Amino acid sequence: METPDAHPLPSWKQKAYSIIFESDTPAGRSFDIALLWAILLSVVVVMLESVRSINAQYGPYLRVVEWIFTGAFMLEYLARLIVVRRPLTYALSLLGIIDFLALAPTLISLLVAGSQYLLVIRTLRLLRVFRIFKLGHFVGEGEFIVRALKASRFKILVFLTAVLTLVVVIGTLMYVVEGGENGFTSIPKSIYWAIVTLTTVGYGDISPVTVLGQTLASVLMILGYAIIAVPTGIVSAQMASPQNTPAPYKQVICHVCQATEHRPEAEFCWRCGEKL
What is the mean pLDDT of residues 4-28? Predict the structure, then answer.
C-alpha cells in the first residue's frame, strides 16, 4: 500500500516549491532577494515607529505600512504551508516557528484592548525582530561559525571559569580594602565593579579611593585588555583549522522533512530518503 508521501507533488506545487524554498533557480533567487528586502524594510518600519518624534508625526502611516508587510508575510507563510508535503512538519520546524512569530505580535494586538496592555503589546511586537533570522535561507556559512563555536566550547568554558574566579577574588579584595564608605557596600556589588572594570566598560558609578584600591583597579584594567583578546583568538584559531572548512551544500530543501545541507551530488534526502 502506498503512503501519501509516495505520490509526487502536482506540477504547480513543484514549481511553487522550487521558487519559495530553493534558491538555485533564477525565480527562486529573485523570490529570496525580494523576501530579504521585505524583511529588512519591515524591521526598519518597526524601528522608526519606536522613535517618539517620528511616531507622533507619521505613526498612522507607519502602522498602515506595518500591516501591509504583515499581510505579505501572512501570504508567504500560507504559501509555504500549501506547497510543502507535510505542513505540520514545516510549521513545527525552527524556520516555521520563526515565520509564525513574525506574524503573531500584530495578530495578538487585534485581540487585546485597553491602554493598560499597550506596553505588553509593544513588548510582543519586538518579536518581529525574529524576522531577520530568516536570513538563514540565504547564508549557508552560518554552519561554519556554529562548528567553530562548538569545537571551542570547552576552551571558552575554561576561560570563562578563570575570569569568573578572577572577578570574585578581586571583588572580594576591593570590598575588604575600600569598604562601604567608598561605595563597595557588599561583595556582590564589588564583584559587579570588577566585571565592569575588567571588561573596560567603566561606568564610573563606583570607584576606589585608597591607594591600594586604585592599584588593584589598575592591575584589573590592564588584565582586561589582555583578556578580551583570548576568546577571539580561540574561535579564530578553530575557524582557521582545516577540519572546520565548510563543506559545499546543495541549495535545495527536502519537500517532505524540510532538511537542508545536502551534498552537491546527492539525489536523495539524507534524513528521510525522499528524492530531491
Answer: 73
Q: Mind listing the pLDDT tens digit for each residue in 34-65?
A: 887 887 888 788 778 878 898 889 888 988 88
The C-alpha cell that represents 36 in the structure block: 530579504
Q: Rounded to an integer, what distance in angstroms lies between the CA atom of residue 189 and that of residue 184? A: 6
Distances 3 to 90, 115, 257 between C-alpha atoms, Å: 19, 52, 15
Q: Can you spell out the DSSP letters for 193-257?
A: HHHHHHTT----SS---SHHHHHHHHHHHHHHHHHHHHHHHHHHHHHHSGGGPPPP-BS---TTT
Report phi then psi at 257, rounded to 5: -110, 0
Distance CA 118, CA 74 (A): 23
Burial class (CB in 10 A: 0-12, 13-18, 19+), 102: buried
Amino acid identity at 210: T
Q: What is the pLDDT of residues 92-107, one digit of tens each?
A: 887 788 778 777 777 7
* Cα–Cα distance, 187 to 182 (Å, whole number): 13
Residue 66: which of 78, 77, 50 has the closest Cα? 50
Choose among 44, 51, 67: nearest CA to 132.
44
Give the integer Cα–Cα distance in Å for 55 and 62: 8
- Rg of the chain over all Cα atoms, to the nearest angstrom: 26
Ramachandran region, residue 130 (left: φ > 0; alpha: ψ -120 to 50; beta: rest): alpha
Pair 17, 84: CB distance under 8 Å: yes
The dihedral built from the CA positions of residue 86, 89, 92 and 93, taken in this order, carries a sign that is negative
Question: How far apart (Å, rounded) are the C-alpha atoms in residues 255 and 9?
Answer: 9
